[in-house]
Amino acid sequence: MTESGLLVPVAESASLRNTVTYAVEHALDHADEDGSSASIHFVYPLPERVSYVDRSGRTDAAESLLDRVASWAEEDAGDADLTVETALIATHVYLSTPGDYADVLVRYAEREGLDRAMFDPRYDPIGSTPLLPSLEAEVRRAGLDVDEAPVSAEQQQSQLVRSGTLTQFFTLFAASFLFYLVLAGSLKAFELATGAISAGIVAVSLWRVSLTSSVDPLRTVKRLARFVLYVPFLLWEIAKANFQIAYIVLHPALPIQPKTVEFDAAVWSSLPVTTLANSITLTPGTLTVDVERSHLVVHSLTASAREDLFAGTLERAVRFVFYGRAAARIPSPIERRESEEGEE
């Protein structure tokens, strides 16, 4: 079976997530029409020399974005047959014009046997001068079929009150109703009625304020289901850590080796990072001291606690909750560190 490949250049933008979803749907539909297997190559042109000895912030951010995009694509594809590839390109080339960027994209497409490219409508690798129309024209002139994802972007300036949808309204209503019943601890008719009234008041008042983005019901249900699996897993990790700490406290030699360590977690956006940081703190023997974006500073009481931390058990579990099974396969912190050291 032949392979139907799609090239998608990426950079941070408000419409990137929607572009990934559209690209996955487009690639799978195109493969079905041709009877071929689908693949998407997400590439990040990074015009600088990549050094694993002195890695720049731009390099770390680019690799983090590619990991995030790959997780999104795997999540959107579900069980469909889709190959996802990511790559930093042009790391030894100076790029300044649309023609420069087009050249490196076309060379990559030719090397990988790709004949189609799709662009995010907000794609702007320079970060100051919109070059997408010229870039698309240059790539098309080189012989690739070029599409622009017909997706919308979020408002760049956040607003306190936004337009809402019925899905957001009912999501907030359901969450408020469930929370009320948990606090009430009863399913009597009176509690159900007062809970519904209270949830309705909350939903009417806050549905355009509390939810900052559109709600995908299916994706939300999947995340909630994965979170239900995560809770007993976290409780088990807490129980194991409690036994380890109890052993240390009761040991005559008190074998502790306190140390503060830092690492970059492969989770993105505030909620997953907060979940990971709090999970680490809830586990005896480790305490999250500081968080900046996805960079965590953790105080660990023992060497075994640090080994568990760098093994990435909690990190993988949090990625599973928010991004699905594919994201759980991203290398652990110690594996990422060993990979970097091996490139030196």
TrEMBL record:
Top-level division of the source organism's lineage: Archaea
Membrane topology type: Multi-pass membrane protein
Transmembrane region(s): none
Cross-referenced Pfam families: MNHE (PF01899)
Alphabetical keyword list: Cell membrane, Membrane, Transmembrane, Transmembrane helix
Assigned GO CC terms: plasma membrane
InterPro entries: Cation_antiport_E
Signal peptide from the UniProt entry: none
GO MF entries: monoatomic cation transmembrane transporter activity
PANTHER family: NA(+)/H(+) ANTIPORTER SUBUNIT E1, NA(+)_H(+) ANTIPORTER SUBUNIT E1
Protein name: Multicomponent Na+:H+ antiporter subunit E
Organism: Halolamina salifodinae
Lineage: Archaea, Methanobacteriati, Methanobacteriota, Stenosarchaea group, Halobacteria
